[in-house]
């Protein structure tokens, strides 16, 4: 539907174009994520989790009730497309896992290994039984991240462009921002000489995240509700964490 995203009145006065607001929020939220990864040896997880939770509140703070409906809230759930979305999300994660193993094995060039390293920044994780560590990381991964990112990227970001772009172009724009943010998880890292880049594996990861984002957009459009994309994203993260904890983690938590 070619209509602008409906911001609440105070924000509409400050930002006649919703796209400007979206880009400012993207920069702020991505900077918070980057700080969680690169800027603090003490506070690694909290800034990242805070960024996801802040995304939850973007529709409540910035959108009208109709704006929230525009991004897919308050719509009837399609259980058919919810199920398809879950299967596609799981399949996308499985493909990322297998491709990473095929190309890079369990080296640090493997994108899921990079995520595993991030999980292990807290040395206390190695002291936990594997199943406890798995639950501790997977529950937030299937709740905080899917809800926050789907609201922001598939909901707010896509709809902010619907008055000026085709649905496909709007989905590609959101996918590009989504993939760019995920370079923080793999592709850009803090080495001994500062911030460094993995050009080849990082580029492949960008393409994988771009394509995965389009899968989420597809099921969100077919299912009409933002929850369809959230379920697909949660399935992706569930499979990703399962492969990390039971296949890729280099220093395994205790098995008992």
From TrEMBL:
Alphabetical keyword list: Hydrolase, Membrane, Metalloprotease, Protease, Transmembrane, Transmembrane helix
The keyword Transmembrane appears for this protein: yes
Residues annotated as domain CAAX prenyl protease 2/Lysostaphin resistance protein A-like: 134-239
MF GO annotations: endopeptidase activity; metallopeptidase activity
Residue intervals passing through the bilayer: 44-63, 84-104, 131-148, 169-188, 200-219, 226-249
Source organism, top-level taxon: Bacteria
Cross-referenced InterPro entries: Rce1/LyrA-like_dom
Biological process annotations from GO: CAAX-box protein maturation
Name of the protein: CPBP family intramembrane metalloprotease
Organism listed in the record: Pelagicoccus enzymogenes
Taxonomic lineage from the root: Bacteria, Pseudomonadati, Verrucomicrobiota, Opitutia, Puniceicoccales
């Amino acid at each position: 539907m070619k209509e602008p995203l409906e911001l609440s009145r105070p924000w509409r006065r400050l930002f006649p174009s919703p796209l400007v607001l979206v880009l400012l929020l993207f920069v702020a939220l991505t900077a918070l994520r980057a700080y969680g990864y690169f800027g603090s040896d003490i506070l690694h997880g909290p800034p990242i989790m805070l960024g996801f939770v802040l995304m939850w509140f973007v529709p409540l703070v910035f959108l009208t009730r109709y704006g929230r409906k525009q991004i897919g809230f308050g719509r009837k759930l399609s259980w058919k497309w919810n199920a398809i979305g879950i299967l596609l999300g799981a399949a996308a994660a499985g493909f990322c896992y297998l491709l990473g193993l095929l190309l890079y094995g369990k080296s640090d060039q493997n994108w899921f290994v990079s995520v595993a390293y991030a999980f292990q920044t807290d040395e206390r994780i190695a002291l936990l039984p594997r199943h406890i560590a798995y639950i501790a990381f997977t529950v937030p991964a299937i709740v905080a991240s899917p809800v926050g990112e789907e609201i922001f990227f598939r909901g707010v970001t896509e709809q902010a462009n619907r008055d000026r772009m085709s649905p496909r172009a709007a989905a590609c724009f959101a996918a590009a921002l989504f993939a760019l943010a995920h370079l923080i998880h793999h592709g850009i890292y803090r080495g001994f000489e500062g911030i460094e880049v993995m050009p080849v594996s990082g580029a492949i990861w960008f393409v994988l995240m771009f394509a995965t984002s389009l899968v989420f957009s597809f099921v969100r459009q077919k299912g009409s509700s933002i929850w369809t994309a959230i379920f697909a994203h949660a399935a992706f993260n569930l499979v990703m964490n399962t492969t990390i904890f039971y296949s890729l983690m280099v220093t395994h938590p205790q098995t008992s």
